[in-house]
Design goal:
- By secondary structure, this protein is an alpha+beta fold.
- The chain has 2 domains: about 160 residues, Sandwich (Jelly Rolls), CATH 2.60.120; about 110 residues, Homeodomain-like (Arc Repressor Mutant, subunit A, Orthogonal Bundle), CATH 1.10.10.60.
- About 40% of the residues lie in helices and about 20% in strands.
- α1 runs antiparallel to α2.
- The longest helix has 18 residues.
- The mean pLDDT is about 85.
Length: about 280
Amino acid sequence: MNPHRDYRDPFTGVGVRLAGDSAAATDFLIHEAGCLRYRDWNHRGIISPYWRLHYNFAPGNSVVCDGRLYRLHPRMVLLTPAGVRIDTRGPRVVLHTWIHFTPTRGYRLPLRSPVSVRIAPPQRAVLRELAADFRNDKARAGLARLHHLSQALLHGVFAGLEPGLYRSVPAALGALLSQMEEHPEQDLSVTALARLAGKSRTQFAAWFKSAMDETPARYVQRLRVRLAAARLGGGEGSIDEIAAATGFANRHHFTRVFAAMSGIGPGAYRRRHQRKA
């Protein structure tokens, strides 16, 4: 069996945590952004449940996936989807920018390998601004600005994806996803969602799976855990209150599902991320 490192935690401790600054209405939930000259960027078997954006201001380093080499250089940004195993190779110490994020409802990309995206001058300008903010230590005093720049960068990069990689969400489903995100405490069973969509249970399940590449139940579970994680990291209420606000039956159910998906219980997750914040 190939060894791997399961990076369930998107917060490295050397970047800036932005989960609390990601509004529900955005297309990307940004967990962390950072810019650093890594002394050692040589790691094998990295797997994470969130997406990664990598950008180097100079050539020399690379990412390897399934035997394919993806070189990092100033004209390209590399996107690695969630659940994809990669190795990082960093023989050079260069300025490296990263964003850990999760596409929410605006982008559906069923990718199973990294993708290099050529960036235009506006995206390179945003990357320079991000690097300047980190270098001058402005980022920690201006999280809203850092979040805005990160969102702008991601939108620009995703807009540059080649035809065929992007799959749009039907307007009716997009409206339903927005309602789910804004009211996770409501009944989000397949039966209830099918009723809201005006479809039979079987029709709805097939429609949802075709558009989202996962079952409604799985999507709801991940949505609730993601929203709960943002509340835990932001110190919003007790664990019981967060469990109720995000639609879990009780604290026991919340703890079991959260630990299964995050690799850590809600209490430990809160303590860890409040320290890092």
